[in-house]
C-alpha cells in the first residue's frame, strides 16, 4: 500500500514565516529519504490542502495528514475534518488518517530548554518565566498551554510562572505584563510558544521590548519561536506513528519525567529525594481556617503623604480630589484614601502609594487623579511616568 504524508501548515502572508516552514520541510525530507512528503496550507498561502489531497488521492492508498499545530484548536478539530469529510466521499479507496496536534512532547520541551540555557544572564532561581501562546477560542487548546508551560518551568528549574496569550482569549499579554510590573520581578524570561518567526512572533517581541523600555528596573531576556529544528521532526514522527497504530512508547505520558530527561525535573525522582518529598507533603498538609470578615475587604488602599513638604505642593487637595472622585463614581467602599505623615520621599512629592500593589508615585499632581482612578485602581495599569518605586 503506497504511503504519503501531508504536512499542513496554517499559512501566512509573512514571507519570513513561509520561508521558515519550507526550510523546515527541507530538513524533514532530508532526514527521511525515500518517503513521499507533500506540504499544504489551510489558508493565506498556496498550495491549499484541497489541491494537494486531490492530487495524492489519485496516486496513493494510505495518506496521513499532519496538522503542524502546537495546540489542538479549531483548525485541527474542525477545518481539516470538514475537508476530509468531502474527500472521503469523492475518493472512497484511499485511507485518510489525521494525526493529533503536536501538543505536549518531550522533544519540544527539550528544544525550548536548550534555548533557555543559551541565556546566560537568566537566574532561574529568582526570575519569572513568561510563556506566551497564540490564543484560541477552544478551551482545550488554551488549557494545554498551561500544562506545557508548567513542564517548561519545572524542567528549567523556575518557580515563578506566568502564562499569557497574544489574542482571542485571556489573559492577554499586555495585561499580564502590567500585572508583572507591579510584582517587580528581578527579571523576566519570555518564551513565545510558537512554531516559526512571523507576524505573531514579531508582535510578541515588540511588546516585550516596549515593556522593558518602559520599566528599566526590570531585567528581561527572550528566546525565539521553535523554528527549524530536528525536535519538530521528532514530534511529527511520533504523531504519525501513533496515527498509524505503531507508537514509539506504549504509555501516553511520553513527556513523563520518569522516562525522558527533562532538566531540573530529574532531581525530583528516585530514592531519598522521593522519600523527602513525601514526608514534607504529609507534614505540611494542613489547611488554615479562613478568616471571616463582617464587611467586604477593600480592593486597594491609597496613601497620600500630607506632611509639610508634600502638603505645600498640593497633597491635601490631591487627597480630597481622590476621595471626591471615588464617592462620585460610587467606588469609595472598594478603594480607600488615607492621609499619612511623612513617607520618606521629601523633595520628590507629593507622594502617593497604592497597596496591596506596593506602587509608589512621586511628583503626583491633581491632574493625575482621574488617570489613577480609571487606569490603576480600576484596570490595574500603572501610571509609568509617575512611578517612584515598586515594593
List the helices and strands and how they pair.
Elements: E1 3-9, H1 15-31, E2 37-41, H2 49-57, E3 62-67, H3 74-90, E4 95-98, H4 106-117, E5 128-133, H5 139-156, E6 160-165, H6 173-183, E7 187-192, H7 199-214, E8 219-222, H8 230-243, H9 271-283, E9 300-305, H10 308-311, H11 315-328, E10 335-340, E11 352-355, E12 359-361, H12 369-379, E13 387-390
Parallel strand pairs: 1-2, 1-3, 3-4, 5-6, 5-7, 7-8, 9-10
Antiparallel strand pairs: 9-11, 11-12, 12-13
Please describe what this structure looks like.
- 37% of the residues are buried.
- Helix content is 40%, strand content 17%.
- With 391 residues, it is of the alpha/beta class.
- Helix 4 (106-117) packs antiparallel against helix 8 (230-243).
- The chain has helices at residues 15-31, 49-57, 74-90, 106-117, 139-156, 173-183, 199-214, 230-243, 271-283, 308-311, 315-328, 369-379, and strands at residues 3-9, 37-41, 62-67, 95-98, 128-133, 160-165, 187-192, 219-222, 300-305, 335-340, 352-355, 359-361, 387-390.
- Among the domains are: 106-222, Rossmann fold (3-Layer(aba) Sandwich), CATH 3.40.50.1400; 300-390, Glutaredoxin (3-Layer(aba) Sandwich), CATH 3.40.30.
- The radius of gyration is 27 Å and the shape is elongated.
- The model is unreliable at 285-291 (pLDDT under 50).
- Strands 10-9-11-12-13 form a five-stranded mixed sheet, covered by helices on one side. It has a four-stranded parallel sheet with strand order 2-1-3-4, with helices on both faces. Strands 6-5-7-8 form a four-stranded parallel sheet, with helices on both faces.
